[in-house]
Specification:
The complex is a heterodimer of chains A (about 400) and B (about 260).
Chain A (H helix, E strand, L loop, with lengths): L1 H22 E4 L4 E4 L1 H26 L13 H10 L1 H21 L2 H26 L8 H18 L3 H20 L8 H20 L1 H4 L20 H27 L2 H11 L1 H6 L4 H27 L9 H14 L4 H17 L7 H15 L26
Antiparallel strand pairs in A: 1-2
Chain B lengths: L2 E12 L2 E12 L3 E5 L6 H8 L7 E7 L5 E3 L5 H7 L1 E3 L12 H8 L8 H6 L2 H20 L15 H13 L5 E5 L7 H18 L2 E5 L3 H7 L2 E6 L2 E6 L1 H6 L1 H8 L5
Parallel strand pairs in B: 3-8, 3-9, 6-7, 7-8
Antiparallel strand pairs in B: 1-2, 1-4, 4-5, 9-10
Helix pairs in contact in B: 3-5, 3-6, 5-6
The chains are: A mainly alpha (about 400), B alpha/beta (about 260).
Amino acid sequence: MQRVIKAAIAALWFMVLTLPVLGIKLNTIESTVTWRLDRIALLGAGIFALALIWDWCFSRKARGLAVIRLPRNFSLGSGMAILSERPVLMAGSLAILAAIMIAMPLVVSFYQTNIMISALLYIMLALGLNIVVGLAGQLVLGYVAFYAVGAYAYGLLHQFLGWGFWVCLPVGGFVAVIFGLALGFPVLRLRGDYLAIVTLGFGEIVRLALQNWTSLTGGPRGVGDIPRPGFFGMEMDISASTTYIYYLVLAAVVITIIVISRLKNSRVGLALQALREDEIACEAMGIDITRVKLSAFALGSCWAGFAGVIFAAKTTYINPSSFTFMESAMILSMVVLGGMGSITGVVIAALILILAPEYLRAFSEYRMLIFGAIMVIMMIFRPQGLISGERRRYRITGLHESKGGRQ
Amino acid sequence: MNPVLEVQDLSQDFGGLRALNELSLTVNSGEIVALIGPNGAGKTTFFNCVTGIYTPTEGKMFLYDREGSPKLLNGKKPHVITAMGMARTFQNIRLFSDMTVLENVMIGRHCRTRAGILGAVMRDGRTRREEQESIDASYALLELVRLQDMWNETARNLPYGAQRRLEIARALATEPRMLLLDEPAAGMNPQETNELKDLVCSIRDNQQLSILLIEHDMGMVMSLSDRIYVMEYGSCIATGKPEEIRVNPRVIKAYLGESDA
């Protein structure tokens, strides 16, 4: 009963608040007032229902129950665990996935392939940011700056020096690393909110510099006529070269996943995770936090640099408006939504966040509204992200049964 | 008796507050030395100075290496000091709480292993061997502190006493010659304290290291330590064997206050 009263109060409150905006229509020419109380009533009913649902969700959360009752022992995480315990199943599903991904551009249209390319690019970016935010726990809000640096490195090196894609790919990554270190040094002492603000500023500085340094970057006009990647000097039409870029990005994503998953489980990866947990204990255990932090920045920005070069090659035209704070926020949401530090989770989240808006064009006006709502709901009901608690399995010599995985 | 840690006239000022006042202290090899004193006497500040977290205002600190030559600790960063052979635990437990028990100890191996980013990506034979060695060494340390059955638990889910033992194992993983324990028995029941006492003794005997511990549990301090330093208001007011400290009037005064009669 109390819940109903609470929901009724919420509904009433909303009705009062929205009355002047939605409920009254003034016609200033004829000086008439039209009351549209039916809308207000509808809104009230909607809010009443939502408030009841919301309250019910919270009461379940408070009692420690899952909001949506899934079949027992079923969750994304445990699904992964089941797969990783059965190598045959794992290999099988990976093979199917690989077959789908490889066949994709041959089956679907040119337009769909382009969407997949940008989704894959975002996966690369999100995985790169995952090193910095998810593993090392350094909240970076200006990640898109490194993406821009990579893209402009290719665009400008081609424009002024005529360098090709394959030369620029490593160079773009390298330049991004330089920028990563340039940002890393001054922010070594910062953490949490302060770090977030400085990196946010860094992202804006890079964007503004690109926008206003007209003599070098072309300003808002950007850099055009960037060649697509070549394949042993072969001439390709647009659709063939899109397919080619698709495979290129796919390979890049696979390499990224392999490298990052190895890195995550290595000595360096453990140090990064220790840094996220406790900096003082980290130092006291003999970890050089300066070095570890800088490697986190370098590794993260390196991937953004690669992705930037590929992005420039894909679109053949870049300008500063592709590198706004919105992009940084988007990439960060992928990491948070997917689960900090989880590679599978981040890949899934990146696919959802890029593909869902593309295929739900009908709702494009509400995109940000839905996006915000999803983020709020996730943070309340599943703050650890889609997949959490991925554990590495260790083998201990002399311990005959090799236990491991999630417990 | 070869010294392992030697501190000369160490002072630490925080603004106008003198937290440590010309403190001198020596720990010889194989010794268990206790540092006691009322709350706020500066014991943890001393640990923080010696491990490089604070930069002392005055004074010199030396850690002797295996050959017996003194190495200055002043101005060195914490991780360098750890690599030189000094490890510590924390008064308020500072574990990597979202990582597993084994991983916590493996972090301690960091400064004794070498694999870099390239090795991690390539996973060549050397990296894999080093990693397996690190896993096995960490597991052996967990056996030493009797946490081997919980090796795959998340550290935060461990009971309190086990967390304290895990901190000791993590510190031991750095292969120290000088181990600093900051209130290892805090919050433990008498039985756990007794087990801890045995553990500390066995560590000293088996790992050939010296131990400096801060502790409030007098039973433990008196039975365990070879020598005791007593601090009050940042200064050392007494030093000696447990039986001397027990009857020292200044120590009794510092702990119990002075009677007017």
